[in-house]
Specification:
globular; 353 residues; Helicase_HTH; Arc Repressor Mutant, subunit A; YpbB-like; 4 domains; mainly alpha
Length: 353
């Protein structure tokens, strides 16, 4: 699975970024550049799905793909070869990549699972009369949430357990058998501890990060099922409540956005926050990607939007320098970047093509 993700990412980057950009994407680097690249190249799904991966591990993955003939290394960039393209096209895992929703579920998928697994363990034990067990999570935020949820259902724990069973059964029947097994084997119940990620990776003969991205895929599919599927999931939905944020911004960009909402302009924000103009410009781009109602007309005229958009379509490139030169340097990099962020004729934000 990790092989397909790396190849798909590099293919979409079209040699316009180094292979390190893929690494920053996979580990969920919370920088304006990584977030902009995720949107610009339609890679938001992969954001943060391999948290904790060391750079040397990623580099070895690249080397392995080069040795297989799937990639060609050119300086600090990696190009997907025809052999790599054919492998990606024929891979059984390729069609599963569409289920990743990393930018939306960043930090949410693990918390959702911790809430769910802790409740199942707690309810299963207490219903059997066992009040002494080691909780599967020591996350204080999750434990506080569990106490509040338990207070509501303490006298009728079997009811949400039965509802969860019914809702989960529908979901698990949609998964490949191996994926369903992995999810179930992770769960703890009465006098039973679920298997660790390390144990499951060994059981299915997967290396650490191949298992990690597969595990995140399962969680993302579950959240997709809970949030977007038409099948009613009232009990599962409760465990996802308050976790998923539709607008993802870095903390610094969020502060800039708050000032924009107060009517402050770029110059004022630079002075108030003691930031360089280029940094605030980065924040504007980040906000434009995240906010479908971004006031583009405040920064770029409608005529300029049309002209810049036509050049973007004509060049079929995301290289700012090429676009700016094609426009005879009549528009700033900020204006071009803003149009690229909100322009929908050539490529829509967050939509795979």
């Amino acid at each position: 699975m990790l092989t397909e993700i790396i190849l798909d990412s590099l293919k979409k980057l079209k040699q316009e970024r180094t292979s390190a950009a893929v690494y920053h994407l996979l580990v969920g680097k919370r920088s304006s550049q990584t977030l902009q690249d995720a949107h610009l190249y339609h890679l938001t799904g992969y954001f943060g799905i391999a948290k904790g991966m060391e750079k040397q591990v990623f580099d070895k993955e690249i080397e392995k793909l080069v040795s297989k003939g799937f990639l060609l290394q050119i300086g600090d960039k990696a190009v997907v070869t025809q052999k790599g393209m054919d492998f990606l096209k024929d891979s059984e895992s390729k069609k599963l990549l569409q289920h990743y929703n990393g930018l939306v579920y960043d930090r949410a998928s693990d918390l959702f699972y911790e809430r769910l697994s802790l409740f199942i363990q707690t309810a299963a034990n207490i219903e059997r009369g066992n009040h002494r067990f080691i909780p599967v999570s020591d996350n204080q935020e999750v434990l506080r949430w569990m106490k509040n949820y338990y207070a509501v259902y303490r006298r009728r724990l079997q009811e949400p357990l039965d509802q969860l069973y019914d809702e989960m059964l529908v979901f698990l029947n949609r998964l490949p058998e191996q994926h369903a097994e992995i999810f179930v084997k992770r769960l703890s119940g009465y006098s039973h501890f679920g298997m660790s990620k390390v144990q499951l990776a060994a059981l299915y003969d997967l290396d650490k990060y191949d298992f990690l991205v597969l595990y995140q895929l399962i969680l993302h599919r579950l959240l997709n099922y809970v949030i977007y599927d038409s099948t009613p999931t009232p009990t599962l939905s409760f465990f996802a409540r308050g976790l998923v944020k539709e607008v993802f911004l870095t903390d610094s960009a969020r502060k800039t956005n708050d000032l924009l909402k107060q009517g402050r302009n770029v110059e004022e924000i630079c002075r108030i926050r003691k930031l360089k103009e280029s940094t605030v410009h980065d924040h504007l781009i980040e906000i434009a990607y995240a906010n479908p109602r971004f006031p583009l007309s405040d920064y770029v005229s409608s005529e300029a939007v049309s002209e810049i958009g036509k050049q973007i379509e004509r060049l079929e490139s995301r290289k700012l320098k090429d676009i700016k030169q094609a426009l005879d340097d009549r528009y700033s990099y900020l204006q071009i970047r803003l149009v690229m962020a909100v322009y929908r004729a050539g490529w829509q934000k967050g939509v795979e093509q």
